[in-house]
Amino acid sequence: AQSVTQLDSHVSVSEGTPVLLRCNYSSSYSPSLFWYVQHPNKGLQLLLKYTSAATLVKGINGFEAEFKKSETSFHLTKPSAHMSDAAEYFCVVSDRGGATNKLIFGTGTLLAVQP
Amino acid sequence: EAGVAQSPRYKIIEKRQSVAFWCNPISGHATLYWYQQILGQGPKLLIQFQNNGVVDDSQLPKDRFSAERLKGVDSTLKIQPAKLEDSAVYLCASSLVAARGITDTQYFGPGTRLTVL
Question: What domains can you pick out in chain A, each with its CATH number?
Fold first, then answer.
């Protein structure tokens, strides 16, 4: 069975400092991995996705994530946080070997950015 | 390009009442998904349609939840009768395809926030 574990439910950083949101996954097949962001009262927006090409994936708004198979991790990073980055972030796994495009979401990490 | 549309945005009902949510996917997207997001949790897939056929409804509480996608475009999710634990945000998403070995991006609507009193 597939699953993702987001290691921090809350992360607080100061504006201009680096962001690290941690995610570990478990998958029986070659996984596809995603990071989605959810701003208050808005829909989920895709930040980036990994589908077996380059292990370092660049996304929107300066975010990137690195797929590390040996560590079963897919941590999200950004060099310098902006106030607008404050939101909830979800790590997601999809089973590329299965018959559907089913997404399994983590429980989310709430990112706070202090001025 | 227009995104996924959902209505209503908010709904408050009493337990044992019925409620329906509507979703209009992105034009041309064959696959449509309904997710339930309970406060403090990640979204959970309820049902997935490919055109107007059901691909996966294994986590849909079929005694009270139903969904349809007539003509392979719009979809309606219904709850009858509602329970307190159904309070959640109901998200609709769509993607171009969903097939073995293909990972297609899902695009999400703004959701409907349901409160059951």
Answer: 1-10+18-75+96-101 (2.60.40.10)
| Average pLDDT of chain A to the nearest whole number | 90
- Residue numbers in A near B44 (CB within 8 A): 105
pLDDT tens-digit map of B82-104: 999 999 999 999 998 755 556 67
Three-class SS state of B36? strand
Half-sphere exposure of B17 (CA within 13 A, CB side): 12
pLDDT digits (tens, 9 = 90+) for A26-70: 987 778 899 999 998 778 999 999 987 788 999 999 999 999 999
Determine whether the interchain pair A94/B105 forms a contact, defined as Cβ–Cβ distance below 8 Å.
no
Residues whose CB falls within 8 Å of the CB of residue A85, separated by 6 or more in sequence, listed in order: A19, A61, A78, A111, A113
Q: In 3D, which of B90, B93, B111, B89 has the Cα closest to residue B31?
A: B93
Query: What top-level class would CATH report for the domain B5-98?
Result: mainly beta
pLDDT in tens, A16-28: 999 999 999 998 7
Helix residue ranges per DSSP H, B25-104: none
- Selecting from B31, B43, B110 the residue whose C-beta is nearest the C-beta of A101 gives B31
CA angle, A80 then A58 then A85, to 5°? 40
